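Lab notebook, bench 4. Still working through the backlog of constructs that have no structural model yet. Next entry is a single chain of 183 residues. Request: give me the structure tokens for it.
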Amino acid sequence: MMRLVNFRYEEIKKAVARLFQTLFQEHGVNCVPISGFEIACRLGIKVRPYSAYPIMERCLLIKMSEEGFFIRSENVIYYNDLRPYPRINFTILHEIGHYVLGHLEESSVAKMEADFFAAYALAPPVLIHKLGITNYQELSTVFGLSIEAANNAYNRYTKWLRYGGRFYTDYEISLCKNFGIAV
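Model written out:
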């Protein structure tokens, strides 16, 4: 399985923290669960469900992507609203990741980066830790994640703890402050 280089993961985490800092300072956004819809709205990105289009156009949209996609020139995220809400929310944050990270074309690396952006934005390990979450079921409830996404997030969290998570980085401190959590 292909991985990003470690410094790129750190850059993406910092990009998420900067985004949340801007959202908090400019709009007071500072609670979990994270809403991709709200973030898109605050960034001025339109969000359109596939069901808003006639059946033939909807079929074309699904052919383009079963989940969703972002068209930068239109500043619009299109998404499949037949998916469960946690999946839709992830998809929207994935597309916001493409926007924030400045991706201009599709690639496997861009997809991995946007996936990581969305996963990290939905459940940053430092927030999981500071909220005292002890299992993936609780994480699913608090952060509004599917069981599968919560299990993945909890696994990332336990790795974060194992490799020094209690020694917070500047961006983790910023995330805590933006979410009103004492460090």
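Notes after review: Residues 44 and 75 are 8 Å apart (CA to CA). The chain has a mean pLDDT of 96. Flag for follow-up if needed.
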